[in-house]
Write a structure and sequence with these properties.
Layout lengths: L3 H18 L2 E2 H8 L3 H13 L3 E7 L7 E6 L5 E7 L3 E8 L4 E8 L7 H15 L6 E8 L2 E2 L6 E4 L4 E5 H9 L3 E5 H12 L8 E6 L3 E7 L2 E2 L30 H5 L1 H10 L19 H13 L3 H25 L3 E5 L6 H15 L8 E4 L6 H12 L9 H13 L3
Bound molecules: zinc ion (ZN).
Length: about 425
């Protein structure tokens, strides 16, 4: 067809609109994108022919005929999402509409000499066992560290022992598929943009609590990445210079207080967690810390005031720092996620009081929402990196995003 570059851009814009705001009528699409009704009719017919859009219910309209709404076909594509941690991988197989088709966990040693080969081999083995349809658009990888660029995928992640690791390049070579790599919290924000808060808000924060403490800053619909892809290291906001040593090498960071290891250290100071002996500095990401925090959570649930106090104190520290971040960034809404939300009822009182007390007037009624969490949430975020690219008219995923779009359109029957 004539002007195919422009047509491609417009098709992407239509997918982007429906992927982010949900089903719309042709008239609404034309109005939102400032297109003529004739070109919307033509382009949506093509997209329906490609199996990417479908006609949904009739939306009653005042006056004229009821309008036929168009929506994305959830089964038009799928992606694998991979979450890399210090001791295991979680891999999920996710459809375009966010439905999880499968999930797997594998042990993983990021410090071994063959770490990237092991990673690629595990992904390959997963690809070999999944169904052929719907078509696979690519692989998204979430890492606890900074990434230069999603489409390049060079990773610095001290907690994995990775420095300038060419994760994207190696996986692309082994898998011959589009591969997008991103900081794990930024990947969660990509999922929120696609399926969650991003449908109704353009400026929001995603905070995570658990082993570490992280943030993703979404402004004007985009994840803010910083100069080197390292923005959002909320866990390393200074809280108290006389505080515990942090994994980053300095002292008194937010994460050293309220990350899992920090909670465990605070609990031991109160004589709690006798079974979990001290493991040295609380900045180290002790893999046993999550079990110890779960034990602390059970004690809090059983009414142990000292255990409740540990969470309450952590809530207050997190609340003060969160207020600072809100004051700086001015989001519409804040979403709190991560393994740590399992114990949120014990953080909440301290958190709410501290955050409201520290917010500037006029921002004290900001919505702060805590979402449910499961083991595969991180990996679902990684898959969303790929699944979001067909809807990303801004092209954050670069050349890899173009390849993902080509697979989506090319896969049509
Ligand atoms: Zn730190």
């Amino acid at each position: 067809m004539a002007g195919s570059d422009r047509g491609d851009l417009t098709r992407t814009a239509i997918l982007a609109l429906l992927g982010t705001v949900g089903p719309l009528s042709r008239t609404e699409i034309a109005r939102e994108l400032d297109l003529s009704p004739a070109s919307v009719t033509q382009l949506t017919r093509e997209l329906m022919g490609h199996g990417m859009l479908e006609e949904l219910d009739l939306k009653p309209s005042r006056g004229g005929r009821p309008a036929q709404r168009l929506g994305l076909v959830g089964s038009a594509g799928r992606a694998l999402g991979v979450k890399v941690t210090a001791d295991h991988l979680v891999i999920v197989d996710v459809r375009l509409d966010g439905v999880v088709l499968g999930a797997w966990e594998h042990p993983f040693d990021p410090s071994g000499p063959h770490a990237l080969d092991d990673l690629a081999g595990t992904v390959e083995a997963t690809l070999a066992r999944i169904e052929q349809a719907p078509p696979l658009l690519g692989v998204g990888v979430g890492v606890p560290g900074s990434v230069d660029d999603q489409a390049v995928g060079t990773v610095n992640a001290p907690t994995l022992g990775w420095q300038a690791m060419p994760v994207g390049e190696r996986l692309r070579r082994r898998l011959s598929l589009p591969v997008l790599v991103e900081n794990d919290v930024n990947a969660l924000a990509a999922a929120e943009r696609l399926y969650g808060r991003g449908r109704t808000h353009r400026d929001f924060l995603v905070l995570t609590i658990g082993r570490g403490v992280g943030a993703a800053i979404v402004t004007d619909g985009r994840v803010y990445r910083g100069a080197r892809g390292g923005a959002g290291e909320f866990g390393h906001v200074p809280v108290d210079p006389s505080g515990p040593v942090c994994g980053c090498g300095t002292a008194g960071c937010l994460e050293a207080f309220v990350g899992a290891a920090g909670l465990v250290a605070a609990a031991r100071d109160k004589g709690l967690l006798g079974e979990h002996a001290a493991h040295g500095d609380p900045g180290a990401r002790d893999p046993g810390a999550k079990d110890a925090v779960d034990e602390l959570g059970r004690a809090a649930a059983a009414g142990d005031r000292a255990a409740q106090d540990v969470f309450d104190q952590a809530g207050r520290i997190l609340g003060r720092s969160t207020a600072g971040l809100i004051n700086v960034v001015d989001p519409e809404v804040v979403v709190i996620l991560g393994e740590g939300v399992a114990h949120w009822p014990y953080w909440q009182v301290g958190f709410d009081r501290a955050v409201r007390a520290q917010l500037m007037p006029g921002r004290r009624d900001i919505a702060i929402e805590v979402e449910s969490w499961d083991e595969t949430s991180w990996a679902q975020g990684a898959a969303a990196l790929v699944l979001a690219t067909p809807f990303d008219a801004a092209g954050a995923a670069g050349e890899q995003g173009r390849l993902v779009r080509a697979r989506l359109i090319g896969a049509a029957p």
